[in-house]
TrEMBL record:
Domain of life, source organism: Eukaryota
Protein's recorded name: Zinc/iron permease
Any one GO molecular-function label of the UniProt entry: zinc ion transmembrane transporter activity
Keywords for this protein: Ion transport, Membrane, Transmembrane, Transmembrane helix, Transport
Membrane topology qualifier: Multi-pass membrane protein
Transmembrane segments: 20-43, 64-83, 103-122, 242-264, 270-290, 302-322, 334-356
InterPro entries (UniProt xref): ZIP, Zn/Fe_permease_fun/pln
Region (Disordered): 142-165
Source organism per UniProt: Podila minutissima
Major location (coarse): membrane
PANTHER family: PROTEIN ZNTC-RELATED (PTHR11040:SF44), ZINC/IRON TRANSPORTER (PTHR11040)
Length: 396
């Protein structure tokens, strides 16, 4: 985020170690508060109205943070990557006359493509596991199923076979038959369940109790389908959250090093920009972590939060440690910063556009069905987050 070709020369007298250590702890606090706020609110019980208002505020802040992440990639990382990887001091492979000047864009694009492949592979594994589970369940159901054609049959004990199904349905699952309304026999919550068989059954009289059992099975099927959808969404969110944190952490270490080696007015402006940057990036990431279905005793949310919280301070500590030998114009420094910025840009662009903007807004049924006012608030928050981080790009 800092200018790799800065002409300001650092001397021991210019470097204020106390300020830099203070900046390290200030970033630690800003990052920690930002990422933990959504998680702690998610674990705290409030009255329903208060909870609704808090969730609305957190969602708006999370959308604002998504805009911050988007602008971070476009305004802060990509230009820095292009500047570093096209510096005249680099080898000929990076020069326009005899080499290739699109290294930054190429690395960012490859990072995005690899993330897409990683996400697809992980999601595909989940789908295959779900398919195997459903096939095993279907096979088990077929083995234990006795067809009921033309009405109830008597079994060898003289009891009604239809009542056997009803007893199994009611005993095996907690379903209150008396409270179930008769559903549409072919269409149920947007899905067709055995439509042809049910249409054929319309031609023969069906007892009220059989209809109730059928309704009970529909409810159980819909519960299982809802659980599968929820599991898939959680799996997708978890993959996206890991990817997002990796991209943010990679970039945070680099900007931490820049802060740890900065001096004078550059240090002050960069510190202010980073405090804003880390807080709202933390809110966006914390909102994603809070939306995951972790067990209450799981260490997952806290480990993910700690990883983000410590990334920038670790970078600052590294910058403080190497401040005497650090040369931001050295070839190695330019290459490392350029490659890391390009990788981070590709990761954050993919995550911001696919996981945050598209998934959280365009593909979110709850958002699409919300009021026009709520939708407007979220879009304004997204744009304001992007605009604010774009403006801060003047100093950071």
């Amino acid at each position: 985020m800092s200018d790799a070709n800065s002409t300001e020369i650092m001397t021991p007298e210019d470097y204020n170690l106390g300020f830099h250590i203070g900046g390290l702890f200030a970033n630690l606090a800003a990052s920690g508060v930002g990422v933990l706020l959504p998680i702690l609110f998610g674990l705290t019980s409030f009255p329903p109205k208060t909870t609704s208002k808090i969730q609305s505020v957190i969602q708006t802040a999370r959308t604002f943070g998504s805009g911050v992440i988007l602008a971070t990639a476009f305004i802060h990382m990509l230009p820095s990557a292009f500047a570093n990887l096209s510096d005249p001091s680099l080898p000929w492979q990076f020069q326009e006359e005899s080499g290739y000047t699109g290294w930054a864009g190429l690395i960012a694009m490859l990072a995005a493509l690899l993330l897409h492949l990683l996400e697809f592979t992980a999601t595909q594994r989940f789908f295959l596991r779900e398919k195997e589970t459903l096939q095993l369940k279907a096979s088990s159901d077929l083995k234990g199923h006795v067809p009921d054609i033309g009405g109830p049959e008597k079994n060898k004990h003289g009891s009604d076979s239809g009542s056997l199904y009803r007893n199994e349905a009611t005993q095996g699952h907690a379903v209150t038959i008396s409270s179930i309304q008769e559903p549409d026999p072919c269409v149920h919550v947007g899905h067709v369940h055995g439509g042809e068989i049910l249409l054929a059954n319309k031609k023969t009289p069906v007892s009220a109790s059989s209809k109730q059992v059928e309704a009970g099975h529909h409810i159980l099927e819909d519960d299982e389908e809802a659980q599968r959808v929820q599991d898939h969404e959680n799996q997708t969110r978890m993959i996206g959250t890991f990817i997002l944190e990796f991209g943010i952490a990679l970039h945070s270490v680099i900007i931490g090093i820049a802060l740890g080696t900065a001096i004078g007015t550059e240090f002050v402006s960069l510190l202010i920009a980073l405090l804003f940057h880390q807080f709202f990036e933390g809110v966006a990431l914390g909102g994603r972590i809070a939306s995951l279905k972790f067990h209450r005793a799981s260490l997952g949310p806290w480990l993910l939060s700690a990883g983000f919280t410590l990334s920038t301070p670790v970078g600052v500590a590294l910058g403080i440690g190497i401040r005497q030998s650090y040369d931001d114009a050295a070839v190695t420094t330019l290459l490392v910063q350029g490659v890391f910025d390009a990788l981070s840009a590709g990761i954050l662009l993919y995550t911001a556009m696919v996981q945050l903007m598209s998934t959280e807004l365009n593909a979110n049924r709850g958002f699409r069905e919300s009021s026009t006012r709520s939708q407007t608030v979220q879009f304004v928050a997204l744009w304001c987050g992007a605009a604010s981080m774009a403006i801060i790009g003047k100093w950071a």
